Amino acid sequence: MITKETKLKPKEREFVERLPHNNFNGTKTVKQVFKTKNDGYARFKAHELITKPNVKKALEVKVQTLKEALIAKGITPERIADRIDLLLDSDEYQAVDKGLTHATKIYGVEDLQHPQSGNTYNILFASETQAEIKAFESKLKAKLLGDVEPT
After folding, report:
1. Is residue 151 in some structural domain?
2. DSSP 8-state symbol, 73
3. Per the structure, how many domains does the chain have?
4. 96-140 residue pLDDT tens
5. pTM of the prediction?
6. 3-state DSSP call for residue 19?
7. From CA 105, how far away is CA 97, in angstroms rounded?
């Protein structure tokens, strides 16, 4: 059901659609959507957008949809961890690395070896989603680091 809280304006909708394609960089996305080159304005507008309840909810739905699409394709944290060795030996290292980085961002996992540079925007999710992400993040980090399965 579309309500005032979930309805998006055309530019808000475009922002939500483009954000994952820009590696969740809000400033870059605002520059594209609003056709601006002003970094200060873009940072301000990105923050404004991601804190609006309707945009925040739409982003949450978008991330969940992307996560479900990855799972439907068989791209799970376990599969990502299993493919790390292939990444190290691949001639297509940069392409594989970019894909893994994008997939882990969708899953809500931070790359501790390559911290994000530039602007970082926090998106507030519903408490149930936050709990799911934290559990998922712990599981993936443990798998990637070779630790024992968290309880």
Report:
1. no
2. T
3. 1
4. 677 767 776 766 655 555 555 555 555 666 777 777 777 887 777
5. 0.54
6. helix
7. 12
